[in-house]
Amino acid sequence: MYKQHYVKITGILFILAMLLVACGQTPASTSQPSADGDSSTESATKTVESASGSKEIPAHPERIVSINMEDILLSLEVPLVLATPIGRQDYLNEQLEAQGVAVEPINESVNFEAVVSANPDLIIANASLDAKILEQLEKIAPTITYDRRNWQESIVQVANALDIEERAEQLLQKNKDQVTEAQKLAADITKTKPTAAFLRLEEKDMRLFFSSIPSTPFPASSYVGAGYEVGFTPDALVTKLEAENPDRMNASISVELLPEIKADYLFIVSISSDGSAEALQKTKDELNEIQQLQVWKSLPAVQNGHVYVLNAKKWLIDGPIAESLKRNEMLEVLGLPAP
Q1: Whose CA is closest to 283, among 291, 1, 186?
Q2: Least confident interval from 35-39, 263-267, 316-320, 331-335
């Protein structure tokens, strides 16, 4: 009898002990408040600020989808599962695919099926996207947005949201170092502070790019800002049109306005943003036609042989990788070695 009671009591104690052990194994993702109200473990989510407002996102996202923010996110080495560059802006595609990131270009709209199939726990999107697109993305996963145009500000904001601030600081410092190095390499050309203008030729239009967008906090926030950072001074016409259009990055100009471009150096951005060899050739064909005009022949840059064609694939985009590629191409067309 005593032995039977002993066995029963021992069995009950064993079960109670197992229950206590099980209760003590709280999942790490669940916050357990202590007696004084503090959390003993990290929360599974956090609240962050983005261009689209305050959002609740995973504290440690493992599957991130990029909507036209590839340059920034790839640079920050976040866990990307899907990238959606606009059109044929494919300068990062090989690098993305090499890292196992699916690439689904945005043509007329975002491929929502591809986003769903990627099973994201977080979506990071370009703030310039249409509100209806952002609304659809929110239905798939928490979505935060940032201004890709001001990549230097946005890269810090993204890093803060993902708790990787040090990576952003390193990338910004790397960018500064690259600018300094490019300036040293171009010093013999830029020591006299030559003026420059960046012109994009289109089928029925010419666009003069500004050195910056005055309404934004960063002076090199224009697509061609990296070119001016090398050490060129904006042409007087560029400065004038820039002041008159503080919210824009370029202005449409006519052939009649060409004589006002007094720049020492003239850079032609290829006609198509895909930056293909065909687009570059088309730009050269357009340029050949314009070169026959007397008004063109009278330009200082033309008379001095300082007209250069650039590949728009890298120039009509933003981010630390693109900025580095732009500077390298600037040095290349000027006959200087890349750093």
Answers
A1: 291
A2: 35-39
What is the per-residue pLDDT across 26-75, written as a single tens digit (0 to 9) for each? Answer: 333 334 343 344 443 456 999 999 998 999 999 999 999 999 999 999 99
Q: What angle (nearest 5°) sits at the alpha carbon of residue 314, between those of residues 312 and 316?
A: 60
Question: Considering only CA atoms, which of 78, 172, 72, 163 is closest in space to residue 126?
Answer: 72
5-40 confidence digits (pLDDT tens): 433 434 443 333 433 433 443 333 334 343 344 443
Residues 6+ apart with CB under 8 A from 159: 76, 165, 166, 167, 168
For 173-333, give the CATH class: alpha beta
**Average pLDDT of the residues of the chain:** 85
Is residue 289 helix, strand or coil?
A: helix
Q: Hey, do 46-163 and 173-333 end up sharing a CATH topology, with the first three levels equal?
A: yes
> Using CA atoms, how far apart are residues 248 and 234, in angstroms rounded to an integer?
16
Q: Give the Cα separation of 300 and 280 in Å (integer).
A: 23
For residues 170 and 167, what is the distance between their CA atoms, to the nearest angstrom?
Answer: 5
CA–CA distances in Å: residue 48 to residues 142, 250, 319, 339:
11, 33, 22, 37
Give phi and psi for 160, each to the nearest 5. Answer: -65, -40
The three-class DSSP label of residue 107 is coil
What is the residue extent of each domain of the chain? 46-163, 173-333
Dihedral sign from CA coordinates of 160, 75, 169, 212: negative
Neighbours of 36 (CB within 10 A): 5
Write down the CATH superfamily of domain 46-163.
Nitrogenase molybdenum iron protein domain (3.40.50.1980)
Q: Are strands 250-253 and 205-209 parallel, antiparallel or unpaired?
A: antiparallel
- Do residues 322 and 311 touch, judged by C-beta distance below 8 A? no
Number of Cβ within 10 Å of residue 248's Cβ equals 16
Three-state DSSP class for residue 235: coil
In this predicted structure, what is the pLDDT of residue 1? Answer: 42
Between CA 171 and CA 180 the distance in angstroms is: 14
Of 2-6, 85-89, 225-229, highest mean pLDDT? 225-229
